[in-house]
DNA sequence: TCGTGCTGTTAGTATATCGGTCACAACAGA
DNA sequence: TCTGTTGTGACCGATATACTAACAGCACGA
Protein backbone atom coordinates (compact mmCIF):
# COMPACT_ATOMS: atom_id res chain seq x y z
CA UNK A 1 0.00 0.00 0.00
CA UNK A 2 1.53 3.27 -1.11
CA UNK A 3 0.50 6.85 -0.49
CA UNK A 4 -1.65 7.18 -3.57
CA UNK A 5 -3.61 4.06 -2.72
CA UNK A 6 -4.08 5.33 0.81
CA UNK A 7 -5.45 8.62 -0.46
CA UNK A 8 -7.85 6.75 -2.68
CA UNK A 9 -8.97 4.60 0.22
CA UNK A 10 -9.60 7.67 2.34
CA UNK A 11 -11.73 9.21 -0.40
CA UNK A 12 -13.83 6.06 -0.35
CA UNK A 13 -14.36 6.74 3.32
CA UNK A 14 -15.84 10.12 2.46
CA UNK A 15 -12.88 12.50 2.29
CA UNK A 16 -12.09 14.57 -0.81
CA UNK A 17 -8.73 14.04 -2.47
CA UNK A 18 -7.34 17.23 -0.96
CA UNK A 19 -8.51 16.31 2.52
CA UNK A 20 -7.00 12.87 2.20
CA UNK A 21 -3.68 14.21 0.93
CA UNK A 22 -3.48 16.80 3.66
CA UNK A 23 -4.25 14.24 6.32
CA UNK A 24 -1.65 11.80 5.06
CA UNK A 25 0.93 14.57 4.79
CA UNK A 26 0.24 15.67 8.36
CA UNK A 27 0.70 12.11 9.56
CA UNK A 28 4.13 12.11 7.98
CA UNK A 29 4.94 15.50 9.44
CA UNK A 30 3.59 15.01 12.92
CA UNK A 31 2.50 18.63 12.97
CA UNK A 32 2.83 21.27 10.32
CA UNK A 33 1.69 24.48 8.69
CA UNK A 34 -0.13 24.86 5.42
CA UNK A 35 3.20 25.51 3.72
CA UNK A 36 4.76 22.40 5.23
CA UNK A 37 1.89 20.35 3.90
CA UNK A 38 1.90 21.92 0.45
CA UNK A 39 5.61 21.21 0.19
CA UNK A 40 5.40 17.46 0.61
CA UNK A 41 2.12 16.74 -1.17
CA UNK A 42 0.28 17.79 -4.31
CA UNK A 43 -2.11 20.26 -2.75
CA UNK A 44 -1.79 23.96 -3.51
CA UNK A 45 -0.98 25.82 -0.33
CA UNK A 46 -4.03 28.00 -0.66
CA UNK A 47 -6.25 24.90 -0.68
CA UNK A 48 -4.72 23.38 2.40
CA UNK A 49 -6.63 25.77 4.64
CA UNK A 50 -10.05 24.72 3.42
CA UNK A 51 -9.21 21.03 3.50
CA UNK A 52 -7.84 21.34 7.03
CA UNK A 53 -10.98 23.12 8.18
CA UNK A 54 -13.03 20.24 6.91
CA UNK A 55 -10.78 17.72 8.60
CA UNK A 56 -11.12 19.64 11.83
CA UNK A 57 -14.90 19.47 11.57
CA UNK A 58 -14.60 15.71 11.18
CA UNK A 59 -12.45 15.52 14.29
CA UNK A 60 -9.42 14.31 12.39
CA UNK A 61 -7.14 17.12 13.38
CA UNK A 62 -6.64 19.86 15.96
CA UNK A 63 -5.61 23.38 15.13
CA UNK A 64 -3.14 25.67 16.80
CA UNK A 65 -4.36 29.18 16.30
CA UNK A 66 -1.09 30.96 15.79
CA UNK A 67 0.40 32.68 12.84
CA UNK A 68 1.15 30.64 10.92
CA UNK A 69 -1.60 28.18 11.83
CA UNK A 70 -0.27 24.78 12.80
CA UNK A 71 -2.21 21.56 12.30
CA UNK A 72 -1.96 18.40 14.34
CA UNK A 73 -3.60 15.18 13.16
CA UNK A 74 -5.12 12.66 15.53
CA UNK A 75 -3.44 9.26 15.50
CA UNK A 76 -4.31 6.88 12.67
CA UNK A 77 -6.05 4.55 15.10
CA UNK A 78 -8.08 7.43 16.47
CA UNK A 79 -8.90 8.64 12.96
CA UNK A 80 -9.99 5.19 11.87
CA UNK A 81 -12.30 4.89 14.86
CA UNK A 82 -13.87 8.28 14.28
CA UNK A 83 -14.40 7.92 10.56
CA UNK A 84 -15.86 4.46 10.84
CA UNK A 85 -18.07 5.30 13.76
CA UNK A 86 -19.36 8.29 11.82
CA UNK A 87 -20.14 6.01 8.92
CA UNK A 88 -21.66 3.42 11.22
CA UNK A 89 -24.07 5.89 12.69
CA UNK A 90 -25.02 7.04 9.21
CA UNK A 91 -25.62 3.42 8.33
CA UNK A 92 -27.65 2.65 11.43
CA UNK A 93 -30.19 5.31 10.61
CA UNK A 94 -30.45 4.37 6.96
CA UNK A 95 -30.81 0.64 7.46
CA UNK A 96 -33.21 1.10 10.30
CA UNK A 97 -35.50 2.93 7.92
CA UNK A 98 -35.06 0.20 5.32
CA UNK A 99 -36.07 -2.48 7.78
CA UNK A 100 -39.26 -0.49 8.33
CA UNK A 101 -40.29 -0.06 4.71
CA UNK A 102 -39.23 -3.53 3.74
CA UNK A 103 -41.77 -5.15 1.43
CA UNK A 104 -44.14 -2.23 1.88
CA UNK A 105 -45.11 -2.19 -1.79
CA UNK A 106 -47.41 -5.02 -2.84
CA UNK A 107 -45.99 -7.14 -5.55
CA UNK A 108 -48.83 -8.99 -7.26
CA UNK A 109 -46.43 -10.91 -9.43
CA UNK A 110 -45.69 -14.15 -7.69
CA UNK A 111 -42.08 -14.76 -8.51
CA UNK A 112 -41.88 -18.37 -7.60
CA UNK A 113 -39.28 -20.68 -9.03
CA UNK A 114 -36.68 -18.01 -8.64
CA UNK A 115 -33.05 -18.82 -9.24
CA UNK A 116 -30.68 -16.12 -8.14
CA UNK A 117 -27.14 -15.52 -9.24
CA UNK A 118 -24.32 -13.94 -7.34
CA UNK A 119 -20.95 -12.66 -8.44
CA UNK A 120 -17.79 -12.38 -6.41
CA UNK A 121 -16.31 -14.81 -3.95
CA UNK A 122 -17.05 -12.79 -0.83
CA UNK A 123 -20.64 -12.33 -1.90
CA UNK A 124 -21.03 -16.04 -2.57
CA UNK A 125 -19.54 -16.85 0.80
CA UNK A 126 -21.94 -14.51 2.54
CA UNK A 127 -24.93 -16.08 0.83
CA UNK A 128 -23.67 -19.54 1.77
CA UNK A 129 -23.54 -18.47 5.40
CA UNK A 130 -27.01 -17.01 5.12
CA UNK A 131 -28.47 -20.21 3.75
CA UNK A 132 -26.72 -22.38 6.32
CA UNK A 133 -28.18 -20.17 9.01
CA UNK A 134 -31.66 -21.08 7.82
CA UNK A 135 -31.15 -24.84 8.04
CA UNK A 136 -33.63 -26.94 10.04
CA UNK A 137 -32.72 -30.49 9.21
CA UNK A 138 -29.49 -31.12 7.40
CA UNK A 139 -26.67 -29.44 5.48
CA UNK A 140 -24.32 -30.83 2.87
CA UNK A 141 -21.36 -28.69 1.87
CA UNK A 142 -19.02 -29.82 -0.85
CA UNK A 143 -15.96 -28.31 -2.47
CA UNK A 144 -12.79 -29.66 -4.05
CA UNK A 145 -10.80 -26.61 -2.94
CA UNK A 146 -9.62 -26.13 0.62
CA UNK A 147 -9.67 -22.33 0.28
CA UNK A 148 -13.39 -22.48 -0.44
CA UNK A 149 -14.15 -23.95 2.96
CA UNK A 150 -13.68 -20.60 4.64
CA UNK A 151 -13.32 -20.28 8.39
CA UNK A 152 -16.58 -18.36 8.58
CA UNK A 153 -18.40 -21.11 6.72
CA UNK A 154 -16.93 -23.80 8.92
CA UNK A 155 -17.95 -21.78 11.94
CA UNK A 156 -21.62 -21.56 11.01
CA UNK A 157 -21.59 -25.20 9.99
CA UNK A 158 -20.34 -26.11 13.45
CA UNK A 159 -22.88 -23.81 15.03
CA UNK A 160 -25.71 -25.46 13.12
CA UNK A 161 -24.43 -28.94 13.93
CA UNK A 162 -24.32 -28.04 17.60
CA UNK A 163 -27.95 -26.97 17.30
CA UNK A 164 -28.91 -30.45 16.16
CA UNK A 165 -28.70 -30.08 12.39
CA UNK A 166 -26.98 -32.89 10.52
CA UNK A 167 -24.03 -31.13 8.90
CA UNK A 168 -21.63 -32.83 6.51
CA UNK A 169 -18.66 -31.70 4.46
CA UNK A 170 -18.00 -33.76 1.36
CA UNK A 171 -14.95 -33.69 -0.86
CA UNK A 172 -12.64 -35.81 -2.96
CA UNK A 173 -9.75 -33.75 -1.70
CA UNK A 174 -8.22 -34.93 1.57
CA UNK A 175 -6.94 -31.48 2.53
CA UNK A 176 -10.51 -30.17 2.58
CA UNK A 177 -11.67 -32.95 4.89
CA UNK A 178 -8.67 -32.48 7.13
CA UNK A 179 -9.56 -28.87 7.81
CA UNK A 180 -12.71 -30.05 9.59
CA UNK A 181 -11.98 -30.88 13.24
CA UNK A 182 -12.26 -34.66 13.58
CA UNK A 183 -13.77 -34.50 17.03
CA UNK A 184 -16.24 -31.73 16.17
CA UNK A 185 -19.93 -32.06 15.43
CA UNK A 186 -19.51 -31.69 11.65
CA UNK A 187 -19.27 -34.96 9.73
CA UNK A 188 -16.84 -35.46 6.87
CA UNK A 189 -17.71 -37.61 3.86
CA UNK A 190 -14.88 -38.51 1.50
CA UNK A 191 -15.66 -39.02 -2.18
CA UNK A 192 -13.89 -41.27 -4.65
CA UNK A 193 -11.40 -39.21 -6.60
CA UNK A 194 -12.82 -40.26 -9.97
CA UNK A 195 -16.28 -39.08 -9.03
CA UNK A 196 -16.31 -35.39 -9.82
CA UNK A 197 -19.93 -34.25 -9.78
CA UNK A 198 -19.32 -31.36 -12.14
CA UNK A 199 -16.03 -30.67 -13.74
CA UNK A 200 -15.55 -27.09 -12.64
CA UNK A 201 -17.82 -26.92 -9.62
CA UNK A 202 -16.37 -24.76 -6.87
CA UNK A 203 -18.99 -25.27 -4.16
CA UNK A 204 -22.17 -27.21 -3.64
CA UNK A 205 -24.46 -26.49 -0.75
CA UNK A 206 -27.59 -28.44 0.06
CA UNK A 207 -29.82 -27.30 2.92
CA UNK A 208 -32.74 -29.43 4.01
CA UNK A 209 -34.62 -30.77 1.01
CA UNK A 210 -35.42 -27.56 -0.81
CA UNK A 211 -32.41 -25.24 -0.82
CA UNK A 212 -29.36 -25.40 -3.02
CA UNK A 213 -26.41 -23.27 -3.99
CA UNK A 214 -23.82 -24.09 -6.59
CA UNK A 215 -20.85 -22.08 -7.74
CA UNK A 216 -18.14 -22.18 -10.36
CA UNK A 217 -14.91 -20.29 -10.79
CA UNK A 218 -14.19 -18.82 -14.18
CA UNK A 219 -10.56 -17.92 -14.68
CA UNK A 220 -11.46 -15.90 -17.73
CA UNK A 221 -12.51 -12.59 -16.24
CA UNK A 222 -9.79 -10.09 -15.41
CA UNK A 223 -6.72 -11.09 -13.46
CA UNK A 224 -8.15 -13.04 -10.56
CA UNK A 225 -10.69 -15.82 -10.51
CA UNK A 226 -14.28 -14.75 -10.51
CA UNK A 227 -16.61 -16.99 -8.56
CA UNK A 228 -20.19 -17.05 -9.76
CA UNK A 229 -22.94 -18.85 -7.92
CA UNK A 230 -26.61 -19.54 -8.30
CA UNK A 231 -29.00 -20.53 -5.58
CA UNK A 232 -32.65 -21.28 -5.04
CA UNK A 233 -34.77 -22.00 -1.99
CA UNK A 234 -38.29 -23.25 -1.44
CA UNK A 235 -38.83 -23.88 -5.11
CA UNK A 236 -39.56 -27.00 -7.05
CA UNK A 237 -36.35 -26.30 -8.89
CA UNK A 238 -34.41 -26.45 -5.72
CA UNK A 239 -36.07 -29.64 -4.60
CA UNK A 240 -35.27 -31.36 -7.85
CA UNK A 241 -31.72 -30.11 -7.89
CA UNK A 242 -31.18 -31.18 -4.33
CA UNK A 243 -32.39 -34.67 -5.14
CA UNK A 244 -30.18 -34.75 -8.20
CA UNK A 245 -27.15 -33.62 -6.29
CA UNK A 246 -27.74 -36.18 -3.61
CA UNK A 247 -27.52 -38.91 -6.17
CA UNK A 248 -24.16 -37.65 -7.30
CA UNK A 249 -22.84 -37.63 -3.79
CA UNK A 250 -22.26 -40.78 -1.82
CA UNK A 251 -23.97 -39.80 1.38
CA UNK A 252 -23.50 -42.62 3.83
CA UNK A 253 -25.26 -41.31 6.89
CA UNK B 1 -35.88 9.33 8.66
CA UNK B 2 -37.59 9.38 5.29
CA UNK B 3 -36.62 7.88 1.99
CA UNK B 4 -34.69 10.85 0.73
CA UNK B 5 -32.58 11.00 3.87
CA UNK B 6 -31.93 7.30 3.59
CA UNK B 7 -30.74 7.68 0.02
CA UNK B 8 -28.45 10.45 1.10
CA UNK B 9 -27.07 8.33 3.91
CA UNK B 10 -26.40 5.48 1.53
CA UNK B 11 -24.51 7.80 -0.79
CA UNK B 12 -22.31 8.74 2.13
CA UNK B 13 -21.56 5.05 2.46
CA UNK B 14 -20.25 5.04 -1.08
CA UNK B 15 -23.27 4.37 -3.28
CA UNK B 16 -24.29 6.71 -6.08
CA UNK B 17 -27.74 8.28 -5.89
CA UNK B 18 -29.12 5.88 -8.46
CA UNK B 19 -27.68 2.87 -6.69
CA UNK B 20 -29.14 4.02 -3.40
CA UNK B 21 -32.57 4.70 -4.89
CA UNK B 22 -32.64 1.36 -6.64
CA UNK B 23 -31.65 -0.43 -3.48
CA UNK B 24 -34.28 1.31 -1.37
CA UNK B 25 -36.94 0.67 -4.00
CA UNK B 26 -36.06 -3.01 -4.09
CA UNK B 27 -36.36 -3.21 -0.33
CA UNK B 28 -39.88 -1.86 -0.64
CA UNK B 29 -40.68 -4.24 -3.46
CA UNK B 30 -39.12 -7.37 -2.07
CA UNK B 31 -38.11 -8.38 -5.57
CA UNK B 32 -38.66 -6.56 -8.83
CA UNK B 33 -37.67 -5.86 -12.41
CA UNK B 34 -36.05 -2.73 -13.75
CA UNK B 35 -39.49 -1.47 -14.73
CA UNK B 36 -40.89 -2.10 -11.26
CA UNK B 37 -38.06 -0.13 -9.75
CA UNK B 38 -38.33 2.74 -12.22
CA UNK B 39 -42.02 2.99 -11.48
CA UNK B 40 -41.71 3.65 -7.75
CA UNK B 41 -38.54 5.72 -7.68
CA UNK B 42 -36.94 8.53 -9.61
CA UNK B 43 -34.51 6.48 -11.66
CA UNK B 44 -34.96 6.17 -15.43
CA UNK B 45 -35.59 2.58 -16.31
CA UNK B 46 -32.59 2.49 -18.61
CA UNK B 47 -30.34 3.46 -15.72
CA UNK B 48 -31.63 0.81 -13.36
CA UNK B 49 -29.64 -1.86 -15.12
CA UNK B 50 -26.29 -0.24 -14.56
CA UNK B 51 -27.02 0.64 -10.97
CA UNK B 52 -28.19 -2.90 -10.24
CA UNK B 53 -25.03 -4.33 -11.77
CA UNK B 54 -22.98 -2.24 -9.42
CA UNK B 55 -25.08 -3.26 -6.44
CA UNK B 56 -24.61 -6.88 -7.39
CA UNK B 57 -20.85 -6.42 -7.44
CA UNK B 58 -21.10 -5.01 -3.94
CA UNK B 59 -23.04 -8.06 -2.82
CA UNK B 60 -26.14 -6.03 -2.07
CA UNK B 61 -28.44 -7.88 -4.40
CA UNK B 62 -28.86 -11.14 -6.24
CA UNK B 63 -30.00 -11.38 -9.83
CA UNK B 64 -32.44 -13.71 -11.49
CA UNK B 65 -31.28 -14.16 -15.02
CA UNK B 66 -34.59 -14.32 -16.80
CA UNK B 67 -36.28 -12.00 -19.21
CA UNK B 68 -37.12 -9.64 -17.75
CA UNK B 69 -34.28 -9.72 -15.23
CA UNK B 70 -35.48 -9.76 -11.64
CA UNK B 71 -33.51 -8.30 -8.75
CA UNK B 72 -33.58 -9.39 -5.14
CA UNK B 73 -31.93 -7.28 -2.45
CA UNK B 74 -30.23 -8.79 0.55
CA UNK B 75 -31.81 -7.91 3.89
CA UNK B 76 -31.05 -4.49 5.36
CA UNK B 77 -29.09 -6.10 8.20
CA UNK B 78 -27.08 -8.11 5.72
CA UNK B 79 -26.51 -5.03 3.55
CA UNK B 80 -25.37 -2.97 6.50
CA UNK B 81 -22.89 -5.63 7.51
CA UNK B 82 -21.48 -5.93 4.02
CA UNK B 83 -21.17 -2.25 3.31
CA UNK B 84 -19.57 -1.48 6.63
CA UNK B 85 -17.21 -4.41 6.50
CA UNK B 86 -16.16 -3.32 3.02
CA UNK B 87 -15.47 0.15 4.35
CA UNK B 88 -13.70 -1.28 7.36
CA UNK B 89 -11.34 -3.27 5.23
CA UNK B 90 -10.68 -0.20 3.11
CA UNK B 91 -9.96 1.68 6.30
CA UNK B 92 -7.72 -1.03 7.74
CA UNK B 93 -5.41 -0.89 4.75
CA UNK B 94 -5.27 2.88 4.66
CA UNK B 95 -4.70 3.45 8.35
CA UNK B 96 -2.23 0.63 8.53
CA UNK B 97 -0.13 2.48 5.99
CA UNK B 98 -0.54 5.71 7.91
CA UNK B 99 0.70 4.11 11.11
CA UNK B 100 3.81 3.11 9.17
CA UNK B 101 4.68 6.49 7.73
CA UNK B 102 3.73 8.39 10.83
CA UNK B 103 6.28 11.10 11.61
CA UNK B 104 8.51 9.90 8.80
CA UNK B 105 9.32 13.44 7.70
CA UNK B 106 11.69 15.27 9.97
CA UNK B 107 10.26 18.44 11.36
CA UNK B 108 13.13 20.63 12.56
CA UNK B 109 10.76 23.25 13.89
CA UNK B 110 10.18 22.49 17.53
CA UNK B 111 6.57 23.39 18.09
CA UNK B 112 6.53 23.51 21.83
CA UNK B 113 3.99 25.45 23.79
CA UNK B 114 1.26 24.28 21.50
CA UNK B 115 -2.34 25.01 22.29
CA UNK B 116 -4.78 23.14 20.12
CA UNK B 117 -8.36 23.99 19.40
CA UNK B 118 -11.20 21.67 18.54
CA UNK B 119 -14.65 22.34 17.14
CA UNK B 120 -17.75 20.24 17.58
CA UNK B 121 -19.06 18.54 20.66
CA UNK B 122 -18.32 14.99 19.57
CA UNK B 123 -14.77 15.94 18.67
CA UNK B 124 -14.27 17.65 22.02
CA UNK B 125 -15.64 14.61 23.81
CA UNK B 126 -13.26 12.34 21.93
CA UNK B 127 -10.28 14.46 22.84
CA UNK B 128 -11.40 14.51 26.47
CA UNK B 129 -11.47 10.75 26.46
CA UNK B 130 -8.06 10.65 24.82
CA UNK B 131 -6.54 12.89 27.45
CA UNK B 132 -8.13 11.01 30.33
CA UNK B 133 -6.69 7.83 28.87
CA UNK B 134 -3.22 9.30 29.25
CA UNK B 135 -3.58 10.11 32.94
CA UNK B 136 -0.94 8.83 35.36
CA UNK B 137 -1.74 10.57 38.58
CA UNK B 138 -5.01 12.45 38.86
CA UNK B 139 -7.93 13.77 36.83
CA UNK B 140 -10.31 16.63 37.57
CA UNK B 141 -13.36 16.95 35.36
CA UNK B 142 -15.73 19.84 35.78
CA UNK B 143 -18.91 20.92 34.01
CA UNK B 144 -22.07 22.77 34.99
CA UNK B 145 -24.15 20.82 32.47
CA UNK B 146 -25.22 17.23 33.07
CA UNK B 147 -25.32 16.51 29.31
CA UNK B 148 -21.62 17.29 29.10
CA UNK B 149 -20.72 14.46 31.42
CA UNK B 150 -21.27 11.91 28.71
CA UNK B 151 -21.54 8.22 29.46
CA UNK B 152 -18.35 7.54 27.52
CA UNK B 153 -16.48 10.13 29.55
CA UNK B 154 -17.79 8.74 32.82
CA UNK B 155 -16.77 5.30 31.66
CA UNK B 156 -13.13 6.19 31.02
CA UNK B 157 -13.06 8.18 34.26
CA UNK B 158 -14.17 5.11 36.12
CA UNK B 159 -11.68 3.00 34.24
CA UNK B 160 -8.86 5.34 35.16
CA UNK B 161 -9.97 5.50 38.79
CA UNK B 162 -10.02 1.73 38.93
CA UNK B 163 -6.45 1.77 37.67
CA UNK B 164 -5.39 3.85 40.64
CA UNK B 165 -5.70 7.36 39.25
CA UNK B 166 -7.36 9.89 41.53
CA UNK B 167 -10.42 10.92 39.52
CA UNK B 168 -12.82 13.64 40.60
CA UNK B 169 -15.89 15.25 39.06
CA UNK B 170 -16.52 18.80 40.23
CA UNK B 171 -19.65 20.86 39.63
CA UNK B 172 -21.91 23.44 41.18
CA UNK B 173 -24.85 21.62 39.69
CA UNK B 174 -26.24 18.76 41.83
CA UNK B 175 -27.64 16.87 38.84
CA UNK B 176 -24.14 16.51 37.44
CA UNK B 177 -22.81 15.08 40.67
CA UNK B 178 -25.75 12.76 41.01
CA UNK B 179 -24.99 11.11 37.69
CA UNK B 180 -21.74 9.78 39.16
CA UNK B 181 -22.34 6.51 41.01
CA UNK B 182 -21.92 7.25 44.72
CA UNK B 183 -20.31 3.90 45.46
CA UNK B 184 -17.99 4.00 42.44
CA UNK B 185 -14.29 4.85 42.39
CA UNK B 186 -14.82 8.36 41.00
CA UNK B 187 -14.99 11.11 43.62
CA UNK B 188 -17.49 13.97 43.42
CA UNK B 189 -16.61 17.45 44.59
CA UNK B 190 -19.46 19.94 44.92
CA UNK B 191 -18.73 23.61 44.30
CA UNK B 192 -20.49 26.60 45.86
CA UNK B 193 -23.11 27.87 43.42
CA UNK B 194 -21.74 31.42 43.39
CA UNK B 195 -18.31 30.22 42.37
CA UNK B 196 -18.41 30.02 38.57
CA UNK B 197 -14.81 29.78 37.38
CA UNK B 198 -15.65 31.21 33.97
CA UNK B 199 -19.02 32.47 33.00
CA UNK B 200 -19.64 30.33 29.97
CA UNK B 201 -17.29 27.43 30.59
CA UNK B 202 -18.72 24.16 29.35
CA UNK B 203 -16.03 21.75 30.51
CA UNK B 204 -12.77 21.85 32.37
CA UNK B 205 -10.43 18.91 32.39
CA UNK B 206 -7.20 18.72 34.35
CA UNK B 207 -4.96 15.70 33.93
CA UNK B 208 -1.92 15.28 36.15
CA UNK B 209 -0.08 18.57 36.52
CA UNK B 210 0.57 19.43 32.89
CA UNK B 211 -2.52 18.76 30.82
CA UNK B 212 -5.62 20.86 30.51
CA UNK B 213 -8.70 21.14 28.31
CA UNK B 214 -11.32 23.85 28.51
CA UNK B 215 -14.39 24.33 26.37
CA UNK B 216 -17.15 26.83 25.86
CA UNK B 217 -20.46 26.66 24.07
CA UNK B 218 -21.30 29.48 21.72
CA UNK B 219 -24.98 29.69 20.93
CA UNK B 220 -24.29 32.01 18.04
CA UNK B 221 -23.34 29.64 15.26
CA UNK B 222 -26.11 28.08 13.21
CA UNK B 223 -29.06 26.43 14.83
CA UNK B 224 -27.48 24.25 17.49
CA UNK B 225 -24.85 25.07 20.05
CA UNK B 226 -21.28 24.83 18.87
CA UNK B 227 -18.82 23.60 21.46
CA UNK B 228 -15.29 24.85 21.03
CA UNK B 229 -12.41 23.62 23.15
CA UNK B 230 -8.73 24.23 23.53
CA UNK B 231 -6.22 21.94 25.15
CA UNK B 232 -2.56 21.68 25.84
CA UNK B 233 -0.34 19.01 27.28
CA UNK B 234 3.23 18.86 28.47
CA UNK B 235 3.73 22.57 28.00
CA UNK B 236 4.52 25.31 30.42
CA UNK B 237 1.25 26.85 29.40
CA UNK B 238 -0.63 23.82 30.50
CA UNK B 239 1.18 23.67 33.80
CA UNK B 240 0.36 27.25 34.56
CA UNK B 241 -3.23 26.89 33.49
CA UNK B 242 -3.64 23.75 35.55
CA UNK B 243 -2.32 25.55 38.58
CA UNK B 244 -4.62 28.48 37.90
CA UNK B 245 -7.63 26.27 37.50
CA UNK B 246 -6.85 24.41 40.65
CA UNK B 247 -7.04 27.63 42.58
CA UNK B 248 -10.49 28.31 41.21
CA UNK B 249 -11.70 24.90 42.20
CA UNK B 250 -12.06 23.87 45.82
CA UNK B 251 -10.31 20.57 45.69
CA UNK B 252 -10.56 19.02 49.11
CA UNK B 253 -8.79 15.75 48.65
C1' DT C 1 10.25 53.39 7.10
C1' DC C 2 10.03 50.95 3.34
C1' DG C 3 10.59 46.68 1.18
C1' DT C 4 10.13 41.59 0.91
C1' DG C 5 8.44 37.36 1.73
C1' DC C 6 5.04 34.61 3.88
C1' DT C 7 0.22 33.86 5.34
C1' DG C 8 -4.54 33.36 4.80
C1' DT C 9 -8.61 34.41 1.79
C1' DT C 10 -11.14 34.72 -2.40
C1' DA C 11 -12.39 34.69 -7.12
C1' DG C 12 -12.24 32.11 -10.92
C1' DT C 13 -11.35 28.18 -14.47
C1' DA C 14 -11.26 23.49 -16.06
C1' DT C 15 -12.62 18.89 -15.83
C1' DA C 16 -14.63 14.63 -14.63
C1' DT C 17 -18.29 12.34 -12.59
C1' DC C 18 -22.93 11.47 -12.44
C1' DG C 19 -27.73 12.50 -12.94
C1' DG C 20 -30.87 12.61 -16.64
C1' DT C 21 -32.74 11.96 -21.76
C1' DC C 22 -33.10 9.64 -26.11
C1' DA C 23 -32.85 6.29 -29.67
C1' DC C 24 -32.82 1.61 -31.03
C1' DA C 25 -32.25 -3.28 -31.67
C1' DA C 26 -33.59 -7.72 -29.54
C1' DC C 27 -37.16 -10.22 -27.87
C1' DA C 28 -41.88 -12.11 -26.43
C1' DG C 29 -46.63 -12.54 -26.82
C1' DA C 30 -50.81 -11.77 -29.42
C1' DT D 1 -46.65 -9.76 -38.51
C1' DC D 2 -47.46 -6.34 -35.31
C1' DT D 3 -46.82 -4.28 -30.76
C1' DG D 4 -45.29 -3.39 -26.32
C1' DT D 5 -41.37 -4.41 -23.32
C1' DT D 6 -36.60 -5.14 -22.39
C1' DG D 7 -31.85 -4.29 -22.30
C1' DT D 8 -27.92 -1.44 -24.31
C1' DG D 9 -25.43 2.43 -25.76
C1' DA D 10 -24.80 7.15 -27.11
C1' DC D 11 -25.45 11.62 -25.72
C1' DC D 12 -26.11 15.99 -22.97
C1' DG D 13 -25.87 19.18 -19.05
C1' DA D 14 -25.10 20.34 -14.30
C1' DT D 15 -22.64 20.03 -10.21
C1' DA D 16 -18.76 19.03 -7.46
C1' DT D 17 -14.03 19.31 -7.10
C1' DA D 18 -9.38 19.57 -8.55
C1' DC D 19 -6.47 23.29 -9.79
C1' DT D 20 -4.76 28.34 -10.83
C1' DA D 21 -4.18 33.01 -9.88
C1' DA D 22 -4.47 37.30 -7.65
C1' DC D 23 -4.42 40.02 -3.45
C1' DA D 24 -4.69 42.11 1.09
C1' DG D 25 -2.67 41.62 5.91
C1' DC D 26 1.23 40.71 8.74
C1' DA D 27 6.16 39.96 10.31
C1' DC D 28 10.65 40.82 9.98
C1' DG D 29 14.83 42.92 8.44
C1' DA D 30 17.55 46.17 5.83
How is this structure best described in words?
The structure is a homodimer of 253-residue chains. Chain A is an alpha+beta fold and 253 residues long. Chain A folds into two domains: 3-78, Winged helix-like DNA-binding domain superfamily/Winged helix DNA-binding domain (Arc Repressor Mutant, subunit A), CATH 1.10.10; 116-248, Endonuclease, Chain A (2-Layer Sandwich). Chain A contains nine helices and ten strands. Chain A has helices spanning 3-12, 17-29, 34-40, 45-57, 76-101, 121-133, 151-162, 174-178, 236-248; strands at 32-33, 61-64, 70-73, 116-119, 138-142, 166-171, 187-190, 201-207, 211-218, 226-233. In chain A, the strands form two sheets. Chain A has a seven-stranded mixed beta sheet, sandwiched between helices. In chain A, strands 1-3-2 form a three-stranded antiparallel beta sheet. In chain A, helix 1 (3-12) crosses helix 2, helix 2 packs across helix 4 (45-57) and helix 3 (34-40) packs across helix 4. The radius of gyration of chain A is 26 Å and the shape is elongated. Chain A starts with a helix and ends in a 5-residue tail after the last helix. In chain A, 39% of the residues are buried. At the A-B interface, helix 1, helix 2, strand 2, helix 5 and strand 4 of A face helix 1, helix 2, strand 2, helix 5 and strand 4 of B. The first copy, chain A, binds a DNA duplex (30 and 30 nucleotides) through helix 4.
Amino acid sequence: MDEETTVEALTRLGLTTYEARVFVALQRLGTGTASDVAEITAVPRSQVYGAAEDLQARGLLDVQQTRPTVYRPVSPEEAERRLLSQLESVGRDAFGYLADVRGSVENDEERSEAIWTIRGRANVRDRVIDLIDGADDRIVYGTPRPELLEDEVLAVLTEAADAGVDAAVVSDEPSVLESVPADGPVRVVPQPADRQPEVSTARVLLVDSDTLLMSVVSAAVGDDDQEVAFWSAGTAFATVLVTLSEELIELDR
